[in-house]
Amino acid sequence: MKTLTIEKLTKSYAKETVALDEFSLGIDQGGCIGIVGESGSGKSTLARILLGLESFDQGQILFKGLQIPPKKKKDYRDYRRDVQMVFQDATSALNPKLPIWKIILEPLDNFKEVKPSFIKEDGLSRKAVASHLLEMVGLEREFVDRYPYQLSGGQKQRVSIARAISLEPSLLICDEPTASLDVTVQFQILELLKKLQEETNMTILFISHDIRAVTFLCEKIVVLKQGIIVDHFHMKDLYKKNRHLYTKQLIKVASLS
Ligand SMILES: Nc1ncnc2c1ncn2[C@@H]1O[C@H](COP(=O)(O)OP(=O)(O)OP(=O)(O)O)[C@@H](O)[C@H]1O
């Protein structure tokens, strides 16, 4: 059984704006799948629908066999635990009034029943748990007592990732997580996501307008244009002749060719 099955998902905002048009995709557990397309192609709409923040008109979504959005309160809660999100703008995603350790522990505070496997000892202090998560994303433990304004953009995105992985989700949706970072830091964040994916076997759905980022991280790539999947392929087939013209244009613009 696929972890996530999306069948003929259609979403319109108005008659003339079809954000997603019969979008279908099956995702196995583990690995990283990339959704790439230019601005307005429907990428964020897809992310919002998957998180239950937006309704859709037609089609269906199944997560581990369960209809999304789940109708029962408990199923909805389980789903929100198992599917986490990293947003583009880490600054607005982090509460400026809270120290980093409190920000990181927000999901674990909301899901007190979750006992993450990375906590090996009993009786660890909350700060020690947060410090451990910071180390998992490559930040020093000393960062726990800082506030978001004392961190760089890349460090803030690492904190967002630490918070998102704290509940050990099966699916991590990343919506343009590197778009507002400079190129070197983008690369570091992509490396981090790759490492975490390999270590934890979570599935990453990586959404980006940047085919370079997508091809660096993902082995399977879906190309979206005006809400329609125009191409999908394995990374190893990136330069195959039969790539869709739009994919070739994205490659050209990114100076990959
Ligand atoms: N709340 C909304 N009301 C009306 N139209 C919307 C709304 N949200 C998105 N759209 C439209 O739906 C289409 C898809 O938008 P979406 O934000 O999903 O694209 P995107 O690929 O994520 O773009 P970007 O990379 O610029 O964020 C666009 O034409 C957009 O104008």
Describe the protein's architecture and organization.
This protein has 257 residues and is an alpha/beta fold. The protein contains nine helices and ten strands. It has helices at 43-50, 73-82, 90-93, 100-110, 126-136, 153-165, 183-200, 211-217, 245-253; strands spanning 4-14, 17-27, 32-36, 58-63, 66-68, 83-86, 171-175, 203-208, 220-225, 228-234. The protein has a six-stranded mixed β-sheet, with helices on both faces. Strand 1 (4-14) and strand 2 (17-27) form a beta hairpin. Helix 4 packs across helix 5 (126-136), helix 4 packs parallel to helix 6 (153-165) and helix 6 (153-165) runs parallel beside helix 7 (183-200). The longest helix is centred in the last third of the chain and has 18 residues, at 183-200. 38% of the residues are buried. It binds adenosine-5'-triphosphate. Adenosine-5'-triphosphate is lined by residues 13, 17, 19, 37, 39-45, 209.
Jot down its keywords.
257 residues, alpha/beta, six-stranded mixed β-sheet, four-stranded antiparallel β-sheet, 9 helices, binds adenosine-5'-triphosphate
